[in-house]
What we know:
Blueprint: E1 6-9, H1 13-24, E2 29-33, E3 49-51, H2 67-78, H3 84-103, E4 108-109, E5 122-125, H4 128-142, E6 146-149, E7 151-159, E8 162-170, E9 173-177, E10 181-184, H5 193-200, E11 208-209, H6 218-225, E12 230-231, E13 237-243, E14 264-266, H7 281-284, H8 288-293, E15 299-305, E16 320-322, H9 325-332, H10 336-349, E17 385-397, E18 400-401, E19 408-411, E20 414-421, H11 439-459
Parallel strand pairs: 1-2, 1-10, 2-6, 10-20, 11-17
Antiparallel strand pairs: 3-5, 4-5, 7-8, 8-9, 12-18, 13-17, 14-15, 15-17, 16-17, 19-20
Amino acid sequence: xxxxxxxxxxxxxxxxxxxxxxxxxxxxxxxxxxxxxxxxxxxxxxxxxxxxxxxxxxxxxxxxxxxxxxxxxxxxxxxxxxxxxxxxxxxxxxxxxxxxxxxxxxxxxxxxxxxxxxxxxxxxxxxxxxxxxxxxxxxxxxxxxxxxxxxxxxxxxxxxxxxxxxxxxxxxxxxxxxxxxxxxxxxxxxxxxxxxxxxxxxxxxxxxxxxxxxxxxxxxxxxxxxxxxxxxxxxxxxxxxxxxxxxxxxxxxxxxxxxxxxxxxxxxxxxxxxxxxxxxxxxxxxxxxxxxxxxxxxxxxxxxxxxxxxxxxxxxxxxxxxxxxxxxxxxxxxxxxxxxxxxxxxxxxxxxxxxxxxxxxxxxxxxxxxxxxxxxxxxxxxxxxxxxxxxxxxxxxxxxxxxxxxxxxxxxxxxxxxxxxxxxxxxxxxxxxxxxxxxxxxxxxxxxxxxxxxxxxxxx
Length: 460
């Protein structure tokens, strides 16, 4: 196994983009994927779309989405916590990535309608992320890339300014290889609940991990322990509000609930705590994981009525349903009188709803109530009533490896000459907080391609 030029650690979108580019450049590439083959692909299995800049209609994308608008969207969700140079690089390069993706087997479909409102900004994969991952593995194999599954990388030996060797276990045996270059694309540490708890405190015990259970941060921890430069805050992550009935791990994108803009959301005391209509859902869904995490027992409850039932993507689990608010409260183990009072106060604060428009900011707002609901504020009044429990669902963490514009890693500011990183494991370089729908795939594709080319140039 020592005749490889490049070892790519990880098996998702960023790893595959790096491997394909490096192989096209003539390098002999080995992918070391921790997961078994049926679960290969990391969080990329669960993705649906790719956020893409474009100067005019491009593939399934309509109209235009220029660099400045894209950057403004990113700055809004990150609160300015981003490396603008790297962000602009990812945004600018995304336009050339879409035809490149098509050339490597990815097929796109017309955008979904409804809550997502993404037809202009995001290109959706035909068959979702699983199809993208499978297409890339087929292409990589045709290019001569070797993929090893259930290969658990345990250590990268840093000596001075280079990685000397890579240790991994496979089928119960220990192995050591000495590739010329190494690309780390093995994600964050979100599946290590002990690490999450050290960062967040006891609240993390109640989080669900909607991403892969194989991203435990083993390689990340190994490199950070050896002094590789880090970026990001261990408490920052892509965390969304997901169905409270989702599994502990790997529930994926289908566990997300898109009903929030058309609901009121309350905590276990049946009290509202945030503006449900602050912005269109793709720009706000990722803040709700943290909002729910701050509530008692890290749980929330979304309440809608019959007229909102068809306005959002169907949920994987059906909502709880009752003909009265009190009946719904009992099903959800909420205080019935308090839920009734909260809904009545909200309904009284709703005004003229004639301008209601479910797919864009409509300014249909409440008045005289805190927190306000600034869009899509219609009374919760038409039975039957429906409810969903919400829990914090972590997709990936933002503490990661600091990289430059060539995706290269460093230690104490000095470049590691043969180490690059791509994807979620370096996304904290750009995502200081918050999230923008489809942007993780943008980061992985752009920096995966860069890392693959740089590693191949070095190895050759």
